[in-house]
Amino acid sequence: MATVTVDTCVIEFAKDFKKIEAASLILLIYQKDVKIGVDIEGIIEKEYREHIRNSRALQRWWIHMENKRLIERYTVSKRGPYPPKNLSEADKMFLDVACMTDTKIFVSEDSDFYVDKTLDEPHPVVKERGINLMKIETATNVINVID
Fold first, then answer.
1. How many domains does the chain fold into?
2. Which domain holds residue 122?
């Protein structure tokens, strides 16, 4: 079963259908039983909970993921390197966890992980770490064919 790492910006975009593609991605993960990668320390999960607390639909999605054991928790022993930007601890953890998943897919539209605000080119450090940084639409296409 495939595991992907999903940035909280995607969760925020899915909330109240701010970006329909993000809501579609969340639904697709739900339907395909794709695992979500998080850290065992709870840094990513804490971020998720902050973003879903005002959304009943996303809370139900998270409960479904937990009940079906689709939350894959990773012990991160190797940290970094990171793009030389002002990354939060959660942002750093997203990169670390993405490196450990089977797909190495990290879905994010946060410009901190890209060369610039156009989101056209992943930051060289992200590429060097072997992470498949994907925008929401690309990830939706990839997950759609995962079985």
1. 1
2. 3-144
